[in-house]
Each structure stands twice: as C-alpha cells, then as structure tokens.
Amino acid sequence: MNNKEFVALMAEKNGTSLKDTSSLLSGLVAEMGNQFEDGASISLTGFGTFEVKKKLERVVVNPSTKQRMLVPPKLVLTFKPSSVLKDKI
C-alpha cells in the first residue's frame, strides 16, 4: 500500500476529506521527525514504540581484501511492536 492509498483508506474510515487526512498525516510524520531529532522516543498504545538508539563504533573487515575499517558511531531509529500488534500478526 502506498501513501495515496493509505490516505484514501484513512479518509474513508474517518469520514474526512482527503486533503484534511493528508494534512493530518503529514503533520504527524513531521512532528515525529522533530521528536526523533531531539532523541525522544514515541510510544503508541496498541501499536508499538519508536526509539532512537546509538550504535557504537566498530571495526569491520572487507572479506575480499581483508582490509579492516572503522565504522563510526551513528544514531538509528528502532521499532518495537506492542504485544497487541504481535498477536494480530
């Protein structure tokens, strides 16, 4: 399902216009992005938890050249589904 189909489905289920639903979802995604930039986690009841975690610096080896490289630390976004969502799937 792509974004356009998802917006249409949500608009139909909630009885709102496509424009209002699209605006609401865009605002939701934008605010979630702002919270992630600040390092906050977001928990949605019945769905799951989004959290920003730091991956530590590590050494990797290129298998063909046997060259060792240092991978710098980085922030990654993780998702842990709730037990309700797990049971549905």
Specify the biggest β-sheet: 3 strands, antiparallel
The coarse silhouette is elongated
Distance between the termini: 17 Å
Mean pLDDT: 92
**Proportion of residues in extended strands:** 25-35%
Strand order of the largest sheet: 1-2-5
CATH superfamily: IHF-like DNA-binding proteins
Total separate domains: 1
What attributes does this structure have?
three-stranded antiparallel sheet; elongated; two-stranded antiparallel ribbon; alpha+beta; 5 strands
Detailed description of the structure:
- With 89 residues, this protein is of the alpha+beta class.
- The chain has a single domain (3-88), classed as HU Protein, Chain A, CATH 4.10.520.10.
- The protein is 43% helix and 30% strand.
- The chain contains three helices and five strands; from the N terminus they run ααβββββα.
- The protein has helices at residues 3-14, 18-37, 83-88; strands at 42-44, 48-55, 58-61, 68-71, 74-81.
- The strands form two sheets. It has a three-stranded antiparallel sheet. The protein has a two-stranded antiparallel ribbon with strand order 3-4.
- A hairpin with a 6-residue loop joins strand 3 and strand 4 (68-71).
- The longest helix is centred in the first third of the chain and has 20 residues, at 18-37.
- It is elongated.
